[in-house]
Design a protein that fits this description.
5 strands; 111 residues; 17% strand
């Protein structure tokens, strides 16, 4: 039995860096959110040990390995999940000093 697609259910791609819904594409053709538009995915390896090249085709982004051939986007991201987590940990946190004004109405602050 074939169930037809409904409006809006066709495809939703997430940003590979943060997981938000992608709005734009970066220079590699990867769908990303606005915050990660200038970042690129480099240094991904295949299961066989060769480097993966990011390509963009008719049905969206995919990876290409010299030994294995074309690798799907989801499989390539699953293989290199640890690299994305390390990138997220290595990003500097926003530790700017901020000014907090405390009034006499903020009793809980002093307790």
């Amino acid at each position: 039995m074939h169930i037809p697609k409904r409006y809006g259910e066709s495809r939703n791609q997430d940003c590979p860096f943060c997981g938000k819904q992608s709005i734009t594409q970066n220079e590699q053709g990867i769908p990303t959110c606005l915050e990660h538009k200038n970042e690129s995915l480099d240094g991904f390896k295949c299961i066989c040990g060769e480097w993966l090249d990011v390509k963009f085709g008719k049905w969206g982004p995919y990876f290409h390995c010299m030994r294995c051939g074309n690798v799907s986007w989801s499989k390539g991201m699953e293989i290199n999940q640890g690299k994305l987590e390390k990138r997220a940990e290595s990003r500097p946190l926003d530790n700017k000093p901020r000014e907090v004004t405390v009034t006499d109405k903020d009793v809980e602050f002093f307790l």
